[in-house]
Design brief:
472 residues; alpha/beta; Rossmann fold; GMP Synthetase, Chain A, domain 3; 3 domains; globular; binds zinc ion
C-alpha cells in the first residue's frame, strides 16, 4: 500500500490550484489509471461488478473511458461490506467515518492515515481560500459526535469552540459573545437559523470567514449570513465518502477539487452530459485505495459550468447544486418541480406570510402545505403561494394549507421540508431527468415518510446529504 501515490503538501495546498487546466487533467488521468487498476486487483466488490458489466482496466486509459465503468451507489457499497475494501488491509490500518443520511443505511467510510491526510489537505485548501488562517479562533457547528471526537481536524490546527445546532439561540449567541470567533464553519441550516436570529435581534458579529456546508446554500440563506456576520459565506460542497468536492472562491464560483476527485455530471445511463446541462453528480476519488469510490452517485443535481473564473485558480467550475434528487417532486404534467420553486412561492406577494413550512406530496396531485405563520400573517399572500402550487400541479390538484405550531426538526438542527410519498420504481435513486418514468407509492406511505424523517436523525455535517431549510 505504501508505494501508492499521494499528492504532496505543497501540491495539495498551493501548487495544484495554480497549474493549467491541461496539467490538472493530465495528472488526474494518470492517477485515475492507478486507482482503477489497484481497485480491480485488490477490491472484490469492484472487480466482480466490473467483470459482470464487461469492463476491464486493460481498456482504460483515462477520463474519457469512465462511461464504460458502471455507476455505483451507497446501497451497493454498504451491501458489499468487507468486499468494498482492499483485501490486503486489516481493520487496525483504517480509520472509520460513518454517516447515515436521509436515504437510510449508514455507510462506514474507511481510510488509511495517508488517505485521511489527503482528504484533510483538500478541506484545508478550501478553508484557506475562504479566508481562514492558522491563528484564527474558529467556531464550528455540527452534530454532537464531532464535539465528542477528540482532536477533530479543525481542533488540531486552530483554536476551536463547538456549537450544537439544537442549543437555543440564546446559548449559541452567548457562545459567540464569549468566544469571539474569527470564523464559523458548520451546517448550512444551523448557521442560517443562527444568522436569522442574530439579524432579528438587530445584532451583527463580523467574521473574517464563514463556511456553511452540508446543504445547498440558498440565496436567502447567504443573505441572512451576510447580514449577521458581515462577510460573504463560502460554501463547501462535499460528501463523507470522498471529503471535499468543490468550494467557492473569492469570486463565488465553485471550483472542483479536480486534483483529488473526478467529478462528472451524467444522464440516466451514466454518460456525461454537456457542460451547462443539469444531470446527476457522480464522483470518483483519486486517492482512496482502502475503500475506493469510483463513479459513485451523489444524488445531487447540478451541472459542469461553462464559465471561467478570473481568480487565477484553474481548477474547473461546477454550478451550484440545484437540489437533491429526491427533493424534486413530479407533477401530473410530467414536469419535475425543483425544490427552488417552493422557496420562491411568495416572490410576487407583498409579504412572506410563513415563518417555516414543508410540502408533503401525498399523491401525484394531492399536496399538503404545512406552515408556521409569520407575525404579520396575511391570508391573501398565502393564497398567492397556494395558487402557484396549483399552477404547477394542475387546477384539479388538492392543495391543503395547514397551519402548524412548528415543523419537526432532527437532532442535528435540520429540517426536511420537501417530502414525497411517491417514489420512482428506480429507487433508491429517483431519476428526475427521466420525465416519463412512472412513479409508484411506497407500500406504506406514512411509514415511508416516518422512516425518512427518522433516518435523517444522526446525520453528519459533511455528509453531503441535503435537507433544505424550510424557513423564509
Ligand atoms: Zn475562482
Amino acid at each position: 500500500m505504501t508505494q501508492l501515490p499521494f499528492p504532496s503538501m505543497i501540491d495539495a495546498l498551493v501548487a495544484n490550484a495554480r497549474r493549467s487546466a491541461e496539467q490538472i487533467a493530465d495528472r488526474a488521468d494518470q492517477q485515475l489509471r492507478v486507482v482503477v487498476r489497484n481497485t480491480y486487483e485488490h477490491v472484490p466488490f469492484y472487480r466482480d461488478h466490473w467483470k459482470s458489466s464487461g469492463f476491464s482496466p486493460d481498456d482504460f486509459s483515462g477520463r474519457q473511458d469512465l462511461p464504460a465503468i458502471p455507476l455505483i451507489d451507497k446501497d451497493m457499497i454498504v451491501s458489499a461490506e468487507e468486499d468494498a475494501l482492499d483485501s490486503r488491509l486489516t481493520p487496525q490500518e483504517m480509520f472509520v467515518m460513518s454517516t447515515s443520511g436521509t436515504s437510510g443505511r449508514a455507510i462506514h467510510v474507511r481510510r488509511t492515515l495517508l488517505e485521511m491526510r489527503a482528504v484533510r489537505r483538500g478541506y484545508l485548501r478550501s478553508l484557506l481560500t475562504a479566508g481562514a488562517r492558522p491563528w484564527h479562533r474558529v467556531l464550528t457547528m455540527a452534530s454532537p459526535w464531532l464535539k465528542e471526537k477528540q482532536g477533530s481536524f479543525v481542533g488540531k490546527i486552530v483554536k476551536t469552540h463547538h456549537l450544537l445546532p439544537l442549543d437555543s439561540p440564546e446559548e449559541q449567541i452567548a457562545s459567540i459573545e464569549s468566544f469571539k470567533p474569527d470564523g464559523l464553519i458548520g451546517q448550512t441550516g444551523g448557521l442560517y437559523l443562527l444568522a436569522r436570529e442574530i439579524v432579528r435581534r438587530g445584532k451583527q458579529f463580523p467574521l473574517a470567514f464563514l463556511c456553511p456546508t452540508g446543504a445547498t446554500l440558498m440565496p436567502e440563506m447567504a443573505q441572512a449570513m451576510r447580514d449577521a456576520f458581515g462577510t460573504e459565506p463560502r460554501d463547501l460542497y462535499g460528501a463523507v465518502e470522498v471529503g471535499g468536492i468543490a468550494w467557492q472562491c473569492p469570486q463565488s464560483n465553485y471550483h472542483i477539487d479536480a486534483d483529488r476527485v473526478v467529478f462528472e455530471v451524467v444522464d440516466e445511463v451514466g454518460s456525461p452530459v454537456p457542460a451547462g446541462t443539469p444531470g446527476q453528480a457522480v464522483v470518483t476519488a483519486l486517492y482512496q485505495y482502502a475503500m475506493p469510490i469510483i463513479r459513485y452517485r451523489l444524488l445531487d443535481i447540478t451541472a459542469i459550468s461553462t464559465r471561467t473564473c478570473d481568480c487565477a485558480r484553474h481548477l474547473p467550475l461546477m454550478e451550484r447544486v440545484q437540489g437533491r434528487v429526491n427533493d424534486f417532486l413530479p407533477a401530473p404534467s410530467g414536469e419535475l418541480v425543483s425544490p427552488h420553486f417552493f422557496f420562491h412561492l411568495y416572490d410576487h406577494a407583498k409579504t412572506t406570510p410563513v415563518k417555516e413550512w414543508r410540502i408533503i406530496q401525498n399523491e401525484l396531485a394531492d399536496l399538503t402545505y404545512e406552515y408556521v405563520p409569520e407575525e404579520h400573517f396575511n391570508s391573501d399572500d398565502l393564497r398567492i403561494g397556494m395558487d402557484m402550487i396549483h399552477k404547477k400541479f394542475g387546477q384539479d390538484a388538492t392543495v391543503r394549507a395547514v397551519e402548524v405550531a412548528s415543523i419537526p426538526m432532527t437532532s442535528n438542527g435540520k429540517r426536511t421540508c420537501i417530502i414525497s410519498k411517491l417514489r420512482s420504481k428506480a429507487t433508491p435513486a429517483y431519476r428526475p431527468w427521466i420525465q416519463d418514468e412512472p412513479v409508484m407509492p411506497l407500500p406504506d406511505d406514512q411509514a415511508g415518510v416516518n422512516r425518512r424523517i427518522k433516518a435523517s436523525v444522526g446525520q453528519e455535517p459533511d455528509s453531503g446529504e441535503e435537507n433544505h431549510q424550510c424557513q423564509h
